[in-house]
Structures are given as structure tokens and as C-alpha cells.
Amino acid sequence: MVRAVTTFVSLSVAIPLLWIVADVVIKGLPAINFEFFTSLPAPFGETGGGVANAVLGTLVINAMSSLIGIPLGVLTGIYQSEYSGERGSTHS
What we know:
It is a multi-pass membrane protein. It is found in: Membrane. Keywords: Membrane, Transmembrane, Transmembrane helix. It contains 3 helices and no strands. The chain starts with a helix and ends in a 9-residue tail after the last helix. The radius of gyration is 24 Å and the shape is flat. It is mainly α and 92 residues long. It has helices at 2-28, 34-38, 52-83.
């Protein structure tokens, strides 16, 4: 009984979600091209425009977080493997 109710509720949520995603993909796919990714956003109320600012911002955020996170992670791993007690011991 619980399995049937769970399946029904899951399908009642998943079907409309998939319908919306499919509708967005079908209607939006023709608008996606190279110019869309490389042009600046259009002013409010005008058609067209792109997402170059968003792409550049994403790249900058990922580069900055990598510059901080990668060295910190490598140094932490070195510390853990070299200086944090005996190897193979269990800590409680």
C-alpha cells in the first residue's frame, strides 16, 4: 500500500516537471547559438541579447575558488598524510 502511494505521488510530481522541462527545451533550443553565449544582455524590454556576463562571471568565480581551494586541499592532504600521527592507527 505504501509503495503504491509513494509511486503515485512520485509520478504525480515527475510528470508535470518533465512536461515543463520538455516544453522549455523544445521552445528554447532554436535560440541557443554561439552568439547567445558571446553577446551582452539586451536592455530591458528589447528582444535578443546573450549571457556573456554570466559566462564570464562563472569562469571568474571558478578560477578564484580554485586558486584558494586547490592549494589548501593539497597542503591539508600533505599534512594529514605526513604529520597527523601514526599511519594505520584508529583514532576515537
